[in-house]
Amino acid sequence: MITIYTLDGDRLVSHIAQAGDPAPDNAVWIDLLNPTHEEDVQTESWTKASIPTKEDMIEIEESSRFYADNGSQYLTASILHSTENKHHSIAPITFILTGPMLVTVRYSEPKAFALYISRVSKAGNGLINVKCSGVTILLGIIEAVTDRIADILEGVAGDIDHNSFAIFRRSEKDRPMTTKNFRDSLTRIGGQGAFLSKIRESIAGVSRLLVYMTAITDQNTYKKETRAWIKSLERDTQSLSTYVDFLSNKITFLLDTVVGLISIEQNAIIKIFSVAAVAFMPPTLVASIYGMNFHFMPELDKVWGYPMALGVMIASAVIPLLIFKKKGWL
Q1: What is the CA radius of gyration of the chain?
Q2: Side by side, which strands form the sheet with 66-69?
Q3: What is the DSSP letter of 87?
Q4: In angstroms, what CA-CA distances link 95 with 76, 92, 99, 123, 147?
């Protein structure tokens, strides 16, 4: 699908391009969402810029994601997005600056794009003016992406705090954590750690894109406000990267804590079995002695023989337990 955005005062107006349409007038942004081969060819005829395929965008090396070709600047970054099953993933999006126009090629639908389009479609949005260009739109999209990542990180931080509370703030009235509780905690914390790695990768891609933007804006005499905007976005991505590192450290700490608690619970169980084995050893010894089939065993003929044997077995079990308790081993 090809969506063309044109300037209308201080907002963008969109319309869907059809096959065979002529080159759009006053277009500042052409958005290709899951384009077909025919749509790629049609866009290339309008912009004179080569449109990369999905395979090209995926296979491109990290060091070759930013380049110039035939007067156009190509920038590819991995952007976080939600999949159909509500999981988060990352997918490459290519931004092509060709003259005053921006062309985006994407095979995913990040929420940041929808939020940006919703905002710039309204009058008085503060982002669009009559001098708007492809660079302005590109930086606006990147700003929406960083804002979206910041919102997601707030949710992740809340989930981490919830898990931390469940682990460290258990009162004496709460039931001890079971194997299922430990398994669920490890699954949740591990999932959050994997999610943070995707966020870190997305932030790194955006950060590299901004570094390249700084280079091309220095070469081409862009307005001072544009360069200042890029610097501001670089600081934002740096702050997000630092915050992701902080959350990753908390994730690592929680994982170590849960693993430590599991070890403590395992040691406690082994301790119980060990104490039980030691406690039953003396009674077993006494019972074994009186279970021997000797003809001469005086206690067998006495009335008090059986109670005495029981008493010796009980005492031999209780006395070691009392000694263990006094020494603090229990």
Answers
A1: 35
A2: 12-16, 2-7, 27-33, 101-106, 88-98, 72-82, 66-69
A3: -
A4: 6, 10, 13, 25, 19
Residue 89's DSSP bridge partners are 81
Distance in angstroms (rounded) separating the CA atoms of residues 283 and 278:
10
Over the stretch 38-64, which tens digit does the pLDDT of each residue have? 888 888 888 888 888 888 787 766 667
Residue partners of 108: CB distance under 8 A and separation at least 6: 79, 81, 89, 91, 93
The model carries a pTM of 0.76
Q: What is the pLDDT of residue 239?
A: 92
For the segment 106-115, what is each residue's pLDDT rounded down to a tens digit? 888 888 888 8
3-state secondary structure 144-198: HHHHHHHHHHHHHHHHHHHHHHHHHCCCCCCCCCCHHHHHHHHHHHHHHHHHHHH
DSSP element (H, E) containing 31: strand 27-33
Of 109, 139, 113, 111, nearest in space to 127 by CA:
139
Q: Mean pLDDT for the chain?
A: 80
Spatial distance between the Cα atoms of 135 and 189, rounded to a whole number of angstroms: 39
Residue pair 22/29 in contact (Cβ under 8 Å)? The answer is no
Q: How many CA atoms lie within 13 A of 257 on its CB side?
A: 14
140 contacts 116 by C-beta, under 8 angstroms: yes
Q: Which domains does the chain have, with CATH numbers?
A: 1-129 (3.30.460.20), 265-326 (1.20.58)
What are 42's two structure tokens? 């049609």
